[in-house]
Amino acid sequence: MNVHFVVHEAFESPGAYEAWVRQRGHEASYSRVHAFDALPASVENIDVLVVLGGPQSPATTPEECAHFDAAAECDLIVRAIKANKAVVGVCLGAQLVGEALGAAHGHSPEKEIGNFPITLTAAGKNNAKVAHFGEVLEVGHWHNDMPGLTADAKILAVSEGCPRQIIEYSDLVYGFQCHMEFTADVVERLIGASGEELAAALDRRFVQQPAALRTNNYEDMNLKLFEFLDQLVAQYQRQTKG
């Protein structure tokens, strides 16, 4: 099982997604676009495509960020979906999945940075891949925007600050606006890269400052994410064999 990561910045690491790959004995490959790695020319050898977050938005142009090409990433996502691969977008990645499917991203009602609860919708409670999250689960956040919705998209979870936290685009394609992959190390990297952003958000009600970010517990949401990924892979394997 090969899991391919699209990594936009050195400080936006795969975190718990990478830990899950190691624990399950899967293979990992990477397009570290911040280092100007090429995106895969073919999706044939990819089983799970994970597109990570970043400070960019789907509207960011190559002139604004030389190593980020939203159109090329959307093309990769479309090719993976058409090939019936499993696809997970995280934060910016979730917004790119929506864009790739024709749904424009939007601005979140609130900026969210830190650990805050998400609540499963009725669709989420009835979804076998996320029902084990429980009705309410504290997860990580670091965003201003949110994914767009296709006609068939199902919102599986919301938060007080954002109405689109987990989206099912199909039974193999998911967008996570939230960051269930956060670990203490990942968050420390983000803190180091985000001093000005955090200082400018002192008055935001859904923004935690470094001291609070460093004391959050990330293990429970990591384990919940692992189970989601196990079920996603099982779905992919059933459809591949079928």
Automatic annotation (TrEMBL):
CDD domains: GATase1_1 (cd01741). SUPFAM superfamilies: Class I glutamine amidotransferase-like (SSF52317). It comes from the Bacteria. One of its GO terms (cellular component) is cytosol. InterPro entries: ChyE-like, Class_I_gatase-like, GATASE. Coiled coil: none annotated. Residues 30-184 form the Glutamine amidotransferase domain. PANTHER family: GLUTAMINE AMIDOTRANSFERASE YLR126C-RELATED. NCBIfam families: PRK08250.1. This is GMP synthase. It comes from Pseudomonas koreensis.
